[in-house]
Design goal:
With about 375 residues, the protein is α+β, with helices and mostly antiparallel strands. Helices cover about 60% and strands about 10% of the residues.
Length: about 375
């Protein structure tokens, strides 16, 4: 019996209601028993006294009138208690079922989610202004939705990683088979091709490790005072030869007397280089890339603008998603980045208390990547 009670919340509520009703009945009976004599004296005894009948037979507390009065009150009380207990019992059953209905729904949904069915939801009519059970159901739905999104992202991540790893591995394996079968010439160009694919595979693995550290907060930011102009120059210098090879002109414009920023030098260099590498990848020969730094309110704003391929409006919300490419074919032609460089840049900027976003007027009209860091 106790095990059954422990397992059923509705039964606990029902028993609680019944216990309250019984306790109330005992209190009512006790109060009536104590107060019945004073009530009799107040309402009947005084009336008899005023009529000069206090001493007459049947007028006192031991009289037949008092006994009949007490019996009538007790009988009325008994019927009232019986009716009250019956109504309380029915009401308790209905109320307990109503209270536990959303809890049963949440329990069923949680069991399904535990099995991997993340599309389960609880039927709630309001998100605000409801009682605690409605708020619980709404919070449960939010949790379930987040779990479903995380599961989709996990599945997509596994698929994307498999795809990204398969491409260089297939190229390496094909080249090696060609060398073994004598189809490919055993020369420097063949080995360079294999090396490039292996290098791309290594960069992908390293970027995945970096992203894992960033998203897992398993990294440290060592902030120090940095001049923005020096930061941009340190990020651009190692890449200058790559821009020169493609005949791309890079201009740097920085406001005078910009305040310094407190940031991790190497991490911020990594952010700018990721943006520059992205601009280089999608800017055609003899193109122009502009790096601009300026103060905006309490922030330093750095932007990298190119006149390259541009980004269609429907792609902009997903640019910083891992492995997302607005133009996959063009990305492959340009050496194929890891597809998570912008995701890493976003994580680093946000870790510094800033924001990053992309803007473009459309395909073929260039794009601008901007981030802010507190001054």
């Amino acid at each position: 019996m106790l095990k059954t009670i422990r397992k059923h919340f509705a039964l606990k509520i029902l028993l609680a209601f019944i216990a309250v009703a019984i306790f109330s009945t005992f209190i009512l009976a006790a109060v009536m028993s104590i107060s019945i004599e004073s009530t009799y004296d107040k309402h009947i005894g005084k009336q008899l006294t005023s009529e000069g009948q206090q001493g007459t037979p049947g007028g006192g507390r031991g009289s037949t009138l008092y006994k009949n009065f007490k019996a009538a009150v007790n009988e009325s009380l008994l019927f009232s208690i019986a009716a009250a207990l019956m109504i309380a019992g029915i009401s308790s059953v209905l109320i307990s079922r109503q209270i536990t209905k959303p809890l049963r729904s949440i329990t069923h949904a949680s069991h399904e989610i535990a099995k991997g069915n993340f599309d389960q939801r609880v039927d709630v009519k309001a998100s605000e202004g409801g009682d605690e059970l409605i708020q619980l159901g709404y919070s449960f739905n939010q949790m379930a939705e987040q779990l479903e999104q995380n599961d989709k992202m996990r599945r997509q991540l596994v698929g994307d990683i498999s795809h990204e790893l398969r491409t260089p591995l297939t190229a390496i394996k094909g080249s090696m088979e060609g060398l073994i079968d004598g189809v490919l010439v055993n020369d420097e160009s063949t080995y360079n091709q294999i090396y490039q694919e292996a290098d791309r595979l290594q960069r992908l693995v390293e970027d995945l490790q970096e992203l894992n550290r960033l998203e897992g907060s398993a990294f440290k930011i060592e902030k120090k005072k940095i001049k923005v102009a020096d930061l941009i120059q340190n990020a651009f210098s190692p890449l200058s030869n790559n821009f020169n090879k493609n005949g791309i002109q890079v201009t740097i414009q920085s406001e005078k007397n910009l305040p310094s920023i407190m940031a991790d030098h190497d991490r911020m260099v990594q952010v700018i280089q990721n943006l520059l590498g992205n601009a280089l990848q999608f800017t055609s020969e003899n193109g122009v890339i502009e790096i601009r730094a300026q103060k905006t309110g309490d922030y330093i704003q750095v932007s990298v603008k190119d006149d390259g391929a541009g980004i269609e409006t429907n792609h902009l919300p997903y640019i910083f998603d891992r492995f997302y490419r607005a133009d996959r074919s063009r990305s492959r032609q340009n050496g194929g980045g890891s597809g998570i460089g912008l995701t890493i840049a976003q994580s680093l900027v946000e870790a510094h208390g800033g924001k990053i976003w992309a803007a473009s007027e459309g395909k073929g009209k260039g794009s601008t990547f901007t981030f802010t860091i507190p001054a």
